[in-house]
Design a protein that fits this description.
The chain contains 10 helices and 15 strands. By secondary structure, the protein is α/β, with parallel strands linked by helices. The relative contact order is 0.16.
């Protein structure tokens, strides 16, 4: 494996040079960045995925929406459409993306839209709604937009300072971009994280950014049926676990602590499920005669599975979803976000 990394390293260097040239063109003003018509908060990362942007977006909307007229703008990764689209709770996930649809269903009172051109999306949102602030999901690399407040996420198990650019590592942007963050959040931390380890990680991040470093963990909610999500469910004795997320390690460990995991089916991140795949998952459960397992998946995957139930007939196996939320382990970040929003809100 070490030899493979050595072979891939020159390609990572070349990719890094291209990225640095691109950033240099924006930093010098040769290519323009604009703020847009509404104050923005950007949630982003340097990694390819798996940093927990969706639960962090949910958390920040909860922090802000009681005090401001706030909206969410996303690229809508994985959708089969282009251009600007408003997201409603009944939107097909293939048209708007799974994560924006999940956020809309969690926050039906918040305007949610998708657009790959973030500036155009902001302009359209400002025309359609009276807004104080827009939260943008996964826009840290979108240099045409100049955001007022950038929240950079990085995972605990391999933070950006211990990672490398693709293809050698998992970074999609250079580490030096961290200096543009206004806050860094180490996500998916263990529940028992010592003050000494926090300080060590802060010292490592300080080589690349002066932004304050905060820490957050993932908390899992109660199981619920994907057809009746208002009804909490007890943990079954046996489950078949499936998901289409970038990193399923925490999910697997948590589910295994609650039930006997008979089989795990991992799909690619943002996977668009088919009726055939859903039938296949049910057949896997049927193969465990006498164990009567149920299917368990993430809330993000559940928004896509719901639309398939009518194409597979009456499901013979119960399908449950597991919601998650972010909990901050350090103080100050919520106050920092609220203070920025109050001071800089710009009513559209």
């Amino acid at each position: 494996m070490h030899l493979l990394f050595i072979v891939l390293r020159p390609f990572s260097w070349l990719y890094g040079l291209i990225l640095k040239l691109r950033h240099r063109l924006y930093d010098t003003g040769f290519w323009k960045s604009e703020s847009g018509p509404v104050t923005t908060i950007v949630i982003g990362n340097l990694e390819l995925g798996g940093t927990g942007k969706t639960p962090m977006t949910d958390k920040i909307l909860h922090i802000l929406k009681g005090h401001l007229k706030v909206a969410l703008l996303s690229r809508g990764y994985g959708r089969k459409t282009k251009g600007y689209r408003d997201v409603v709770t009944e939107s097909p996930p293939a048209e708007v993306g799974d994560e924006p649809l999940l956020i809309k269903r969690m926050h039906p009172d918040v305007p949610v839209a998708v657009c790959e051109d973030r500036l155009r999306g902001l302009e359209q949102l400002a025309e359609n709604h009276v807004l104080d602030l827009v939260v943008l999901d996964d826009a840290f690399q979108h240099r045409p937009l100049h955001s007022g407040f950038n929240i950079l996420l990085t995972p605990y198990d391999r933070p950006f300072w211990d990672n490398a650019l693709v293809p050698e590592g998992r970074l999609r942007d250079v580490k030096e971009r961290a200096r543009y963050a206004h806050a860094i959040v180490v996500t998916k931390c263990p529940a028992q994280l010592s003050a000494q380890e926090m300080e060590s990680m802060r010292e490592s991040a300080a080589w690349y950014s002066t932004a304050p470093v905060h820490f957050a963990r993932i908390d899992y909610g109660a199981l619920r049926s994907i057809t009746h999500p208002e009804e909490p469910k007890d943990w079954p004795q046996s489950v078949v676990l499936f998901s289409g997320i970038a990193d399923d390690s925490l999910l697997h460990d948590y589910v295994a602590s609650k039930s006997d995991v008979l089989e795990v089916k991992k799909f690619s991140d943002h996977h668009q499920y088919t009726p055939h795949e859903l039938r296949m998952l049910m057949e896997i459960c049927a193969n465990f005669a006498g164990r009567d397992p149920v299917l368990v998946t993430t809330a993000k995957d559940a928004v896509k599975i719901r639309g398939l139930l009518g194409d597979t007939g009456d499901p013979q196996v119960e399908i449950l979803e597991l919601p998650i939320e972010v909990s901050f382990m350090t103080e100050g970040l919520e106050e920092m976000i609220r203070a920025y929003a109050r001071t800089n809100k710009r009513n559209s």
